[in-house]
Amino acid sequence: MSTSALSFGSAARLYDSIRPAYPAQAVARAIGTEPVRVLDLGAGTGLLTGVLRAAGHEVIAVEPDPQMRAVAAERHPGTQVLAGSAEDIPLPDGSVDAVVVGQAYHWFTPQDALPQIHRVLRKDGVFAPMWNVRDDRTPWVAALSGVIGTEGYGLERAWQYGPVTPWFTEPELALTEHTVTVPTDRLIDLVRSRSYYLTADAAEQARLDREVGELAATDPALAGRDSVEMPYRTCVYRMRRA
After folding, report:
1. Residue 116, domain extent
2. For position 195, what pLDDT does the model report?
3. Which residue has the higher pLDDT, 162 or 51?
4. How far apart are CA 70 and CA 12, in angstroms?
5. What is the CATH number of the domain that holds 98?
6. Does residue 172 sit within a domain?
7. Does 192 reside within a domain?
8. Cα distance between residue 1 and residue 64, in whole Å
9. Is the Cβ–Cβ distance between 191 and 19 less than 8 Å?
10. How far, CA to CA in Å, does 19 sit from each of 31, 136, 162?
11. What is the pTM of this model?
12. Backbone phi, then psi, for 221, in 5-degree steps?
């Protein structure tokens, strides 16, 4: 796991307050609707954990960053929140029915993580990485991405994180569209919760602050509004244990 993957801890509470959760429909597409035992791997502050729990699943959360882990434990009392990583999962063989990963698989080292995920899954278990991706088909969102960079985690393109065989079947993509209400004056907080911002130097952070502020003040879809609907596409890659 890279250093950038561990950059979020300093902004754990900001991250938790501004990042979007995941739509229940996307979770259902990932692992079905029957309650199962699920590992939320790279769980962060537990945004996906909360959706899984609300759907009736038994959840174990594993997260390497202690500050993110502390927020997850606080948010979800009664849930096992364990220290660990995708490359070293602290669970017995065949102990979960499904492994889900929200906004984190791109930080994993696949050649080490995939055998570990395979190991902890029961026979025919499901592995489902997913991402909330800003929908740049909306003009003001495209303008925001022009400032801060795009989020391209597959979508209509093919799975881009390397082969999953012999551990898993080929991924099947499902897309769910949804919106999240964001206070306009907190768009910069959404940016400040990104690893790119957290690891940037002071000059680059200042540029991002300035240009996002200018966009919020001048774009016709944003200017003078207290809040805005941020459109997302949640992309789920579902595969079976081979």
Report:
1. 4-133+151-178+234-240
2. 82
3. 51
4. 9
5. 3.40.50.150
6. yes
7. no
8. 9
9. no
10. 22, 17, 27
11. 0.92
12. -80, -10
